[in-house]
Design brief:
The structure is a single chain. This protein has 510 residues and is α+β, with helices and mostly antiparallel strands. The protein has 2 domains: 268 residues, Aminopeptidase (3-Layer(aba) Sandwich), CATH 3.40.630.10; 110 residues, Alpha-Beta Plaits (2-Layer Sandwich), CATH 3.30.70.360. The protein contains 15 helices and 18 strands. Strand 17 and strand 18 form a beta hairpin. Helix 6 crosses helix 9 and helix 6 crosses helix 15. The two termini are 43 Å apart. The N terminus is likely disordered. The structure holds zinc ion. Zinc ion binds next to helix 9. Zinc ion (ZN) binds next to helix 9.
Length: 510
């Protein structure tokens, strides 16, 4: 149950249920948010002055837009430090954790077989919740498109309207590889560094996972072993939402226009064609969809998909000698001719691969779906040509049968176009350094919505979220790293407001 009245997250954070708090009661709830802020500001101020409250519990971490109320009353950081205190990781963690724990419970697993976008209803639910929360934070420019894209804009600070817009993206769906239904997140505070048993034969083992071992003494979140966690990409969603809340609560941070986009069906790649590019105003965007702290991805695979159709020649199998061409067997024969040394399980780094994703069929017809991945365009051409050769080989082995190969591009390596706007990376690197983060460049062995956006002319590198072991039951996320990702967004917005880099002169390619 979600609280409709008070600022998002407050009820959850402190009362663990909606509408149990006094903010939701009666007439008070019908006040406009700004008056609610003022009322609370006065009540809390009185309580603090009279000594009833030492530190207001529900606002101790500058958690929501109430500081508008404080600003309106003329209180500043100097007068009211507990409320308007400096940005700390603990404060940011309090903005992120309740959100993240809530978002992972939405069943947003995408379905690669569903023809429509979004492919599953759960994505609508999360999208609607996020749109409502963004409105609850005080944003008026919030839109939910026909295809379940949430687009919201934080207006620029006074005098900053001319600053070019920058955007942040995360995706709503989780991968279909492992169930994302009924996710039971477990919050481990002060992790003791020991093995965590999840289910028979399944454990988070620091001996096998150096990243996990390094979290000793810190807070992590994992699932119970029956599902994935969904940090990919709800960590990114929570980080962007947390940053938005923080920026709105801190009008003293001057910034230009900021755009927020949450997209459906990123994991299947099927959301990309519906990307509302015409509505995006940002000159550069950043996806929060990466892994460990410091990871920055500016290049990804060139991705193609091949749909291979096999048509056999059917005859009663009792009289089939020399006459039957079995389509099911043709598909299997094709699949085993793909080089095992160029499979996902045999490659890493910059090596590409072929991956049979699905095979189905019977005597008469069969189909095989193969993903082709290569960082290099020439490498991709070689792979496509190889499929044609294999098709001919299979046809030769099954007289009377035919094989048709149809290839389709999914996305391109974004490196080339990101390199055209070096300022977008340079300012990000500077923002990271201000927080003591050194980036490590790493090629993405996959793609993100950023790949598509970059292709359409808006450079979109991918930033870490703090998550690990994506698409698996062993997925976990480091809360301090989430906080740093969120702070990086805030710092980048601040820096960009001060000195936005000049976008490249070339018009966006269509
Ligand atoms: Zn992702």
């Amino acid at each position: 149950m979600r609280c409709h009245y008070c600022a998002p997250g407050v009820c959850y954070r402190y009362f663990e249920t909606a509408c149990g708090c006094f903010l939701c009661a009666g007439a008070y709830a019908r006040l406009k948010p700004v008056y609610r802020c003022l009322c609370i500001a006065i009540i809390v101020r009185l309580a603090c002055v009279t000594g009833i409250l030492k530190q207001p519990p529900f606002i101790r971490n500058q958690a929501w837009g109430m500081s508008y109320g404080y600003h309106a009353l003329g209180f500043t950081e100097a007068i009211f430090p507990p409320i308007m205190g400096p940005m700390t990781d603990t404060g940011i963690e309090d903005l992120l954790v309740p959100r993240f724990l809530r978002y992972v419970r939405y069943w947003t697993e995408s379905d690669r077989h569903a023809p429509e976008t979004p492919s599953t209803a759960g994505q609508w639910e999360l999208a609607r919740t996020l749109a409502e929360e963004l409105k609850g934070l005080g944003l008026t420019d919030v839109e939910l498109t026909d295809h379940c894209y949430v687009i919201a804009r934080i207006p620029p600070s006074p005098g900053k309207a001319a600053v070019p817009a920058l955007g942040f993206l995360a995706h709503l769906d989780t991968a279909g590889d492992v169930s994302g239904k009924d996710v039971q997140p477990r919050l481990v505070k002060n992790y003791d560094g020991k093995k965590i048993d999840l289910a028979p034969g399944l454990a988070l083992d620091p001996a096998l996972d150096a990243g996990l071992a390094a979290q000793q003494g810190k807070t992590i979140i994992h699932a119970d072993g029956s599902t994935l966690l969904g940090a990919d990409d709800k960590a990114g969603v929570a980080e962007i939402m947390g940053a938005a809340e923080y920026l709105l609560a801190h009008p003293e941070i001057l910034h230009g226009p900021v755009e927020i986009v949450f997209s459906p069906d990123e994991e299947t790649g099927k959301g990309l064609p519906e990307f509302p590019i015409e509505r995006i105003r940002s000159k550069a965007c950043y996806t929060l969809d990466g892994g460990p702290l410091g990871e920055l991805e500016t290049e990804c695979f060139n991705a193609w998909k091949a749909d291979i159709t096999f048509r056999g020649r059917v005859i009663h199998i009792g009289a089939a000698r020399g006459r039957l061409a079995n389509a099911a067997l043709m598909a299997a024969t094709f699949a085993v001719q793909l080089p095992r040394s160029e499979s996902p399980e045999a490659t890493d780094g910059y090596y590409g691969y072929y991956c049979p994703m699905e095979i189905r069929g019977d005597l008469e017809t069969a189909s095989l779906e193969v993903f082709l991945r290569d960082f290099d365009r020439a490498g991709m051409d070689r792979r496509i040509a190889a499929l044609e050769t294999i098709a001919k080989t299979v046809e030769a082995q099954f007289p009377g049968g035919t094989v048709a190969v149809e290839v389709k591009n999914q996305y391109y390596n974004m490196k080339e176009k990101i390199d055209r706007f070096p300022g977008a990376l340079e300012i990000l690197t500077r923002a990271a350094r201000n927080l003591g983060i050194e980036f490590r460049f790493k090629p993405i062995r996959g793609g993100t919505d950023g790949s598509r956006l970059t292709e359409l002319g808006i450079p979109t590198p991918n930033i870490f979220t703090g998550g690990r072991n994506f698409h698996s039951r062993l997925e976990w996320v480091s809360v301090p790293e989430m906080a740093l990702a969120c702070r990086l967004v805030i710092e980048l917005v601040r820096l960009w407001g001060e000195e936005a880099p000049e976008p490249p002169p070339v018009p966006p390619a269509k």
